[in-house]
Amino acid sequence: MFMPIPDGLIVLTFDDGVKSQFTFAAPLLKSLGFEATFYITEGLNFLTDKSRYMTWDEVAELDKMGFEIGNHTRAHASVAKQTPDELRSDIDHIDRRCEEYGITRPVTFCYPGYVHTPEAVAVNRERGFTFARRGTAPEFSYDSEGGRGPAYDPSSHDPLLVPTTGASGPHWGMDDFKWALDQARDGRVTVLTFHGVPDLDHPWVHTDPNVFEGYVRHLHDNGYQVVSISGCSTHLEGADRTG
Ligand SMILES: [Zn+2]
């Protein structure tokens, strides 16, 4: 049944399978009853550095805890540098791993490195993904605007090009966080993207654990509804999608 998008609807996403998402962020979110989507790839140092990246067993544990696991491709390659067949194969690889570990098959996708192309959108559409999350561009420049981006507007955005409204990093703080939350009204959804909390491998997308705790307390104390990206879908049936 169609329920209109309420004000204060916030989507939480976490990219790259960073260990601290499992050890720190997920238990904190769970304790507050918050949902989230974790986008898993075997790229970056996922296969070689198990002190900084989750194991597949830990990914399976997140799934059992009720969090959504999303497909972030095998190799974290830019889709702009892949053929459609290479992208299909990298998506299949993550699906197979999920099957091996008893993880719910991902129904949503995240473009590696915030890069998306019409060809990749077409692959995602053919695969039947319900949502695919991108970065803040082209509307906002990541370099000059420090992680601010558009809110997701289901009446104008393709669900396979859901933008990031706030990309957490060292140059994105409480003011930016509150700015992002303010966009969650009039039928629009705020989509937040985090990497590691902390992120020791990629300092440009690092979030300090104490700062993160401040964000989630603020969400909790102010009554925001915090969902996975799939959590949007109950509000979207019957919505006017032009994408
Ligand atoms: Zn990534």
Would you tell me the structural class of the helices and strands?
alpha/beta
Q: Into how many domains do the coordinates divide?
A: 1
Q: Hey, roughly how much beta strand do the residues contain?
A: 5-15%
- Tell me which CATH architecture applies here: Alpha-Beta Barrel
Main sheet makeup = 6 strands, parallel
Total beta strand runs = 8
Tally of separate helices: 7
How would you sum up the global shape?
globular
Helix content: 25-40%
The CATH H-level superfamily is Glycoside hydrolase/deacetylase
Task: Point out poorly predicted stretches.
Answer: 239-243
Bound molecules: zinc ion
The secondary-structure element order is EHEHEHEHEHEHEHE
Distance, first to last CA: 21 Å
Radius of gyration: 16 Å
Characterise this structure.
The protein has 243 residues and is α/β, with parallel strands linked by helices. It has a single domain (9-235), classed as Glycoside hydrolase/deacetylase (TIM Barrel), CATH 3.20.20. Helix content is 31%, strand content 13%. It has seven helices and eight strands. The chain has helices at residues 19-31, 56-64, 84-100, 118-127, 142-145, 174-182, 209-221, and strands spanning 9-15, 37-40, 68-71, 108-110, 131-133, 166-167, 190-194, 225-227. Strands 1, 2, 3, 6, 7 and 8 form a six-stranded parallel β-sheet that branches. Strands 4-5 form a two-stranded parallel ribbon. Helix 6 links the parallel strand 6 (166-167) and strand 7. Helix 1 (19-31) packs parallel to helix 7 (209-221). The radius of gyration is 16 Å and the shape is globular. It starts with 8 loop residues before the first strand and ends in a 16-residue tail after the last strand. Mean pLDDT is 94; it is low at 239-243. Bound molecules: zinc ion (ZN). Residues 15-16, 72, 76, 112 line the site of zinc ion.
